[in-house]
Amino acid sequence: MWNPEKALFTELYQYPEHLRHTLENLPGSSGVYIFYGDDNAFPLYIGKSVNIRSRVMSHFRNPAEAKLLHMTRDIEHIETTGEIGALLLESDLIKTRRPLFNKRLRTARKLCSIRLQGLSAQIVFSDDVDFSHSEDLFGLFKTKMSAIEKIRDIADQEKLCYGALGLERLTKNRACFRFSLGKCAGVCCGKETPEAHQERLRNALSTLKIRSWPYPGRIAIVEEASGQTDYHVINHWFYLGTVKTLEAAKAFDIAVPHFDRDSYKILCRPMFETDSSKVILLD
Question: What's the burial of 20, exposed, middle or buried (CB within 10 Å: 0-12/13-18/19+)?
Fold first, then answer.
């Protein structure tokens, strides 16, 4: 959709000479950068990169970001040992400081997931179910409607029955309307077994399965680069913070307020696919 305000700034784009001096202080290493306007207490934009200087310069070359650059008066940076630390810090800062131009990581604390129960696909919420330990949870959604739409998409692709899934009411001893259209394989009228219906549903959802927290309590993920070491302290998929020593990591303990979608997505790969020696049990 055409945005006249954005188009105006794009047309008037000029290289932000007033920010040129900030490039001199930006490192070519991993970390987070913060764009500030006239008030340094409230950031305009927070980003991350494995090369802070290169990433900030890419903003300078992008006419579509003319409005952000026009408003920016200063750019702060925070170096991290590696990419994991940058991802975690960016996510944490966006949630706590809520910059004007960031939208993607402003995740609502209340999340939805799909739980298989019998033949149906039930929608459950993170304030009712412990997403860190529950089995048979599939997908992380910001709204109930987005979860339902995912179930409908899978049902359409796999010829699953809306009625059996709990999306529509079924009339006893009668096939659903979608069966007459060839869009349901017929579990509602005995043309398909409930077990076959359930297996196709589970297979279609398999890539969305939420992995349970595999440790008894807190862990530290060790990230090392260029002679530096960071210990990222995690508990039940929630990022508690980063410290420089194992002793500080063991002493780092706060209550886990909620399951965090972004931390989960950031941490799944390094936790399950990296050398096990990089994960230290703290509890």
Answer: exposed
The residue type found at 206 is S
**What domain range includes position 259?**
219-281
Closest CA to 5 of 70, 74, 86, 94: 70
Report which of 167, 189, 193 is spatially closest to residue 180, judged by C-alpha positions.
189
Alpha carbon distance 55, 77 (integer Å): 12
Q: How many domains does the chain have?
A: 3
Per-10-residue mean pLDDT for the chain, 283 residues long?
A: 50 70 88 93 94 93 86 94 95 91 70 86 91 92 94 96 90 88 93 93 95 92 92 92 94 79 88 76 90
* 49 found inside a domain: yes
In the sheet with 112-117, reading across from the earlier edge strand, the strands are 120-125, 112-117, 137-141
